[in-house]
Design goal:
- This is Methyltransferase.
- Pfam families: Methyltransf_23.
- GO terms for molecular function: transferase activity.
- The chain is built from nine helices and ten strands.
- With 287 residues, the chain is of the alpha/beta class.
- It has a single domain (61-286), classed as 3-Layer(aba) Sandwich (Rossmann fold).
- It has a six-stranded mixed beta sheet with strand order 5-4-6-7-10-9, with helices on both faces. The protein has a four-stranded antiparallel beta sheet with strand order 1-2-3-8, with no helix packed on it.
- A hairpin with a 5-residue loop joins strand 2 (30-36) and strand 3 (42-45).
- Helix 2 (72-93) packs antiparallel against helix 8 and helix 8 (240-254) crosses helix 9 (258-272).
Amino acid sequence: MNQITTCNYCECDDLTPILQVTDHSITNEKFELLECFCCGLIHTSPQPSETEIGKYYQSDNYVSHSDTKEGLINKIYHIARKIALNRKASIISDFHKKTSLLDIGCGTGYFAAHMQRRGYTVSVMEPDPGAAEQAKQKLNVDPYTTLEAVQGTYKTITMWHVFEHVLDINKTFEKIESLLDTDGVLVLAVPNPESPDAKLYKENWAAYDVPRHVYHYKKTVIKQIANRYDLKVHSILPMKMDSYYISMLSEKYKGGNILKAIWNGLRSNIKAGKHNTSSLIYIIERK
C-alpha cells in the first residue's frame, strides 16, 4: 500500500485530509481522502499497488465485473443500465455514427455490445480476466487486457466510470490522446464529489468506493488534465440515474431505507441542475 505524500498528478506536496472513508464493499478497511491544494485532485490514501488492487475487486458485490442480480440494489442497477444504454448511444451519435469506438474498462461488455448492434466497429479493453471473457463471448472480439497494448486510432473513446480506478493519470491521458482520431471525442464519466448527495452523505457517500476509486475528480481537475494534453472539455452532461443508485447504496451503509434514498436522490438532482449531479459525463475533444 502506498501512502500518498505528494499529488500523483501535479506533484505538489500540500495535501489536506478531508474525510476518512470505509471500504464498505469488501474489507471494512479505512482510508483517508487527501485534497491537493495546488490542483484540487482528491486522492485515496493509502493506495493499493497494481499487484495489491485485485483483492479489492474479488466480490460479487462488484456488479460490473460479476453481473450479479442478487439483491434489490443490484436488480435496480441492471434496470438502470438498460435505460442508460440508449442515452449513451444517443450522446455518441451526436458526434459520430457507425464509426470506430474503443470502450476502455468495458466490464462484461454490455455497452460495447449495444454499440456493436448499432453498427459501430467496436474494440474493448478490460483487465479483469473474468469480465473480459464475458465481453469476448458477447462481442466475438478479443479484448485488450492493458491500455498500453491498444493500437490504432478511434473516432470515439469511452470510459464509463473507469477513470476513477486508474492509478497513473498522466500515463493514461497521454495514451488516450495518441489513440484519439483528429476529430475524435473522449466520453468520460466519473462520480462528482461536489454533488449535493456527496455533501449530504459525506463519509458514507457510496461513490467514494475506496480503495477501488483511487482519485475523486472535481470539474476543474478534469479540465486541467484535458488541457495538459492539448484537449478541451466540449460539454458536461448529467447522469441523473446515478443519484438514486448511489443514494440507495449510501443509505445501506448508514442503515437507512430505500424510500429515504429515493427522496435524497430526487432532492440531489433538483439541487444539482444539469452540471452538478452525482456523476457527470465529460465530452472531451482536441483543441
